[in-house]
Design goal:
The complex is a heterodimer of chains A (about 90) and B (about 140). Chain A has about 90 residues and is α+β, with helices and mostly antiparallel strands. Chain A has helices spanning about 10-15, 30-40; strands at about 1-5, 20-25, 50-55, 60, 70-75. Helix content of chain A is about 20%, strand content about 25%. In chain A, strand 3 and strand 4 (about 60) form a beta hairpin. Classes of the chains: A alpha+beta (about 90), B alpha+beta (about 140).
Chain lengths: ~90, ~140
């Protein structure tokens, strides 16, 4: 089935594109889309563990099933995630 | 009435955010303004470049607002975020929270900015004199 992958910010730069269409096997889940993106753009692989996935504009777990025509966005760490002087995990304490 | 949720390259207007939530049913309006700092993690910042997944960010703003309205009945939220290249001192975000009383207005305002910072698909690249870096990924 066909899906659309969207790349933003650091993921967009590493992929060299902001959007592409991709074919995945029936029954594929979000993790498969991420893996396909890394296979197509190896520079993504070293940051893949830090990417979240959004399925049709909603955050989704990596085992979420994909649907024909769905839009999978790779979401790098967002702007507010780490403030100056803060270490990961210190937020909101 | 101005739009409660907004994201794009237009300059932030704190007045517009306040106008979007004000009303005679609310005796309190709390605001939060976020501005670009000239320093970050010990480095001098020349500019910040904000990129957003705008349609998803707007959905999240709506979601943050409905969460707040369940928790603080009668409150209203405006969330305005700017995108593009911003210089130190320029506003990147404005939140206005109106509620019948001030405790709820402050709480809803705080909730909105923290939720936005945790989950809104908005990225910033810090630009230095000698290079640039995406915040959070270091690349």
């Amino acid at each position: 089935m066909r899906i659309t992958l969207l790349y933003f910010a650091a993921a967009r730069e590493r992929a060299g594109t902001s959007r592409e269409s991709l074919s995945v096997a029936p029954g594929a889940v979000a993790r498969d889309a991420l893996e396909a993106a890394c296979a197509a753009h190896p520079a993504l692989r070293e940051v893949a563990s830090r990417l979240r996935v959004a399925l049709d504009e909603e955050f989704a777990p990596l085992d979420a099933p994909l649907r024909e025509g769905c839009e999978v966005a790779l979401i790098p760490p967002v702007a507010g995630g780490l403030d100056a002087g803060e270490k990961p995990g210190e937020k909101n304490r | 009435m101005s739009a409660p949720h907004r994201i794009g390259p237009e300059a932030i207007s704190p007045d517009a955010a306040v106008r979007a939530v004000s009303g005679t049913d609310c005796g309190a309006v709390a605001t939060f303004l976020g501005a670009v700092r000239a320093q970050s993690r010990g480095r001098e910042v020349v500019a910040l470049d904000y990129e957003a997944f705008e349609s998803m960010a707007l959905k999240q703003f709506v979601h943050i607002t409905s969460q707040a309205q369940q928790r603080w009945p009668g409150c209203r939220l405006a969330i305005h975020h700017r995108t593009g290249r911003l210089l130190p001192g320029e506003l990147s975000v404005a939140i206005a929270a109106a509620a019948p009383h001030r405790d709820d207005a402050f709480a809803a305002c705080r909730h909105a900015i923290e939720a936005l910072k945790a989950d809104a698909p908005i990225w910033k690249r810090e630009e230095y004199r000698d290079g640039s870096e995406w915040v959070g990924l270091g690349s």
